Each structure stands twice: as structure tokens, then as C-alpha cells.
Amino acid sequence: MSKKTKESLRSARWFEPDDLRSFGHRSRAMQMGYGPEDWSGKPVIAIVNTWSDINPCHTHFKQRVEDVKRGILQAGGLPIELPAISLSETYVKPTTMLYRNMLAMETEELIRSHPIDGAVLMGGCDKTTPGLVMGALSAGLPFVYLPAGPMLRGNWKGKVLGSGSDAWKYWDERRAGNISEAQWLEVEGGIARSHGTCMTMGTAATMMGIAEALGLTLPGASSIPAADASHPRMAAACGRRIVEMVWEDLTPAKILNKTSFLNAINAAMAMGCSTNAIIHLIAMSRRAGTECTVSLEDFDLASRKVPVIANIRPSGDQYLMEDFYYAGGMPALLKQMGSHLNLSAMTVTGKTIGENIQNAEVHNEDVIRPLSNAIYQEGALAVLKGNIAPGGAVIKPSACAEKFLKHTGPALVFDSYPEMKKAIEDENLDVTENHILVLRNAGPKGGPGMPEWGMLPIPVKLVKQGVRDMLRLSDARMSGTSYGACILHASPESYIGGPLALIKTGDLITVDVPNRKIHLEISDEELAHRKAKWTPPVPQYERGYGWMFSQHILQAEDGCDFDFLETGFGKPVPEPDIF
């Protein structure tokens, strides 16, 4: 492996020349209290920190950044903290997905424009993992991803609560009149007990695990609870390792290939991953280069052969991410499913994934099951296609009632979320458990930003009858903590005239998950007639970032990146001029 010299450090372009411009760089560094001994001949490491006062997943990052700095200094580097947009899943509206690509752009440009030799990326809240990684892949410098880690288990009257999943569960009980307001407030106060991400196998845990399966984290880093003392030690280790990676010139191009992404897909299936994994992993692969790109077909192929072995809610029925960590975490899961991995794939450690997990052990085989005792025999996700979704749609069969995997029922169509929300609270709504609720205008352009509206609430009329699941179809996403028979990401989206825009209430829809089909039971001629009469909606934005988003966002099956950010769009961006 090639080694960097002091003279070939990227940061040396800023600090070492004997000219007026470098004089300015050095003098301004001295203005901040640094001296030549801080930068001369040392790697400068960016710490891209997504901390903010309104992101509970990243509350601990204020301290963790100091832990990372400690590690960088121990290894002989110079740490530079660069704040980036925080993307708090709970608070950012209309959806953080609207801004994932903004974080990717910011990360890429922060790294490229500063005197940086490598980076530690601090993320965890849903869109921060893909956003940070996408940007860093485009920048091309060595980096390590530092996962925020899951929060501790929730608790209510001795019952274990899982973020998201139990919110939906107990809200339906509240709507049914089975839980009082006082009890609901107790759940509210007990469901999130520490800093860190959702502790179910939602999007945050999924994407942190995927980052590890890709080889972009230190071994075991993705599973450590945020509040555990191992977490700051891991943070310092990230700081030490990135300095070594700079000297080794271990760039992402030397780590990632198509095999890396296929490994990540297989690991995602074994985890019982969030449906959002598809969009993010496709986008990340397309940033890594055309030779790395994965597709919906790769996910569906994996779903046919890789069982779900992580018994973590919502696919599992009992355990949470804290239990997953105690059972051995991500290294143990990768070891357990090793026959579905290419163990020669490289990682940020400079070793292969096989070498990293060689000594991993499973400490609880009910939490991390053997392949022979999976909780679901096929993978967590399935890709459906048909005249409703020629570009594909996604369902999580491991987290829905089996009876809905083959079903024909009449559509009940809603054109907006407010319309749907009002209707489902109407106790006189003409709806049965056999209906398929359809929400449209909720895709990448229509949402805007493809919000997590796909887990449509069960109509209150049915909730009071004891119904807790039914088929739902939309071009939206749903939270990875959600569950139920939800068909998502229908593409092309209805806002641009996709077939979802042409469904009428009462139309029969057939869903056949085993055969991967979804079909609107009308003739091709009738579908074409409806298409001819369709008129485009009024544009969402006429200025600003939203306008740019609307002009350049790709559809779900292509990862919802901006077209101009993908690797294949144009020539690589050169190093910045320094004059």
C-alpha cells in the first residue's frame, strides 16, 4: 500500500509554500493560537459534526467531538471541527429527506475547500449517515464514519418501549379509548430515556449498521449504545485511526467496490432493515462510482436468499438495539451470516471484513439467530412491480400481517395528507379491513421531499373494531420504526403523472408479494384514457432550495439524489486553486 509523505499531504498545499498566500494561512492559524508545531508535517483532520441544540439523537456529540480530537492528537494529527446541518428527524419539516442532499453537498464542499487530509464523519440520525457518506465519497479523501449509537430502552410501568414502534401501537390504543390521557403522558415521558438514535431497527440503526457492513466504521462501532462508556472510547479510536488512514492513503476508492455494496444489502436483509435502506444505499453506491452501483433488482435478489436473523423490533417481537449490542452487535451478526458475505471486502481498518469479524461471538442466539432459526425466512424487504408501479414499489413483509401478502381489495384514494387525516377520523367512513388505502402526491417532488407518510393510520372506525393492520399504498416513505402492510416508494410518483395518479376510489388492486406483483385491475386502454386526461399539479416551489430540489431530484429507484451530484454526471472536480 502506498504511503503518504509529509510533503505530499494535501494540507501542505495551504501551509508549507514560502509565498504570500501561505503566509496568510499560517498567520491566521497563529491568530487562533496555533503554532507551526501544530500543523507542520501533520495530517489535518476534519471532524464533520452534525450536533445541534435540537437534535436529541446527537446530544452527546458536543462531548464526542472532544473525544475524537483527543484521538487525533494522540496519533499526531491536527483536529479541525467543521459543523454541518444537523437534520433532526423529529423536528425538521416537511421532512429531513428534503435536505439529505444538502448535507451531502455541504460535506463534499467542506472537505474539498478546506486544508483537510482526512475526515471523521459524526452522524446517526436517519439522513445524516447517507448524507455524510455520500458527500465524503464524492470528495474522495480518507474518512471514518462515527455512528451516534442507539438510545437506551424505553420503559413504562415495567414494560419495554421501542421508539416509533410503540408510539404507533399505543396511539391506536389511545384512539380506541383503551389508554387514558394520563397514561399516554407516561408513555411520552418513558419512551426516549437517553441521548442517541431510535433503539428499534429503524432507519438510524439500519444505516449505521450498513455503514459498518460497507467497511466504513470501526468494527462494532454501529451497535454501541450512545450512553455506554464504550462510545467515547470508540470516538477516540476513530480519531487515531483516521490519522493512520491518511498516512496509508486509504481512500474510499480503495475500500469500496460492488462487492462492498452487495455485502451491505445482504447485511441489511439479515438485520430486518428499514425500507429507507433501499433509497439511501442506492444513492451511496451511485456516488461511489458506476462500477459500484446497485439497484432494486439487487435488493430483491438478496431478499429471496437472506433471512432475517436479528430479532429486533419491528421485524422481531421483543428485543431492541441495546439487546443487540449485548448479544454481540454487528460483528456477531456478520459472523452469523458469513456465508452470505464476501469476506475479502476491504474496510477502514486496512483489514478485510473477514479479518475484522474473525473472533466475533454471538452471546444470545435468540437476539442474533443462526441462519437455521431465522425469524423470517426471506429477507426483510420485497420489491413489487406492475402497472401501478412500473419503476417499483417496496414492502416490508417481515413486519406485516401474513394475510395481506396476497390480497385483492378496493382502493380508497386520498390526494393529500390533510384529506387522509381528516377522513380516517370519521367514524362513518365507508371503509373495511379489505380496502387498500392509497395516498398520492407524497413522493420526492410531490411531498415535497418524500415524507414518512406511508404508514397511513388505520381508520378510527376499524381501530375500534380491533383492526390493527391493513394494506396501504403510496409514493411516500415510512419510518423504519413503523410496521404494517405498507407498500411504499411507488414509482414513478403521482405528482409527475405516475400511474398512482390515475387510481380511482373503488378500483380493485391486487397485491402478490410472493410473486412480486402489484396490479391495478383495469384495462390498458382505460389506464391510457385516464393518463390523457391527467393534468399536472401546481409547482411546489418557484424559488430557493426547494426549486432546485424539484428541478434535479431523481426518483426513488435511483436513490433520490440530485442528478448533477452523481459520479457519472461530469468530470471529477479538481483540487481548488490556491492563489
Question: Can you describe this structure?
Answer:
- The protein is α/β, with parallel strands linked by helices.
- The chain is 35% helix and 12% strand.
- It has 21 helices and 14 strands.
- It has helices at residues 12-15, 20-31, 36-39, 61-74, 100-113, 128-139, 165-175, 181-190, 203-213, 230-248, 252-255, 258-271, 276-288, 296-305, 321-326, 329-336, 353-356, 417-424, 460-463, 524-533, 544-552; strands at 44-49, 78-83, 118-123, 143-147, 154-156, 159-161, 382-384, 392-395, 406-414, 436-439, 472-474, 486-491, 508-512, 517-520.
- An eight-stranded mixed beta sheet has the order 7-8-12-11-10-9-13-14.
- Helix 9 (203-213) runs parallel beside helix 13 (276-288), helix 12 (258-271) packs antiparallel against helix 13 and helix 12 crosses helix 14.
- The longest helix is centred in the middle third of the chain and has 19 residues, at 230-248.
- The mean pLDDT is 96.
Q: Give the C-alpha Rg.
A: 24 Å
Query: What is the topology, as strand order, of the major beta sheet?
Result: 7-8-12-11-10-9-13-14
Give the rounded overall mean pLDDT. 96
Number of β-strand runs: 14
Oligomer description: single chain
- CA(first)-CA(last) distance: 32 Å
Shape: globular
Strand content: 5-15%
Largest sheet: 8 strands, mixed
Helix content: 25-40%
State the secondary-structure class.
Answer: alpha/beta
Which spans of ≥5 residues are poorly predicted at pLDDT below 50? none
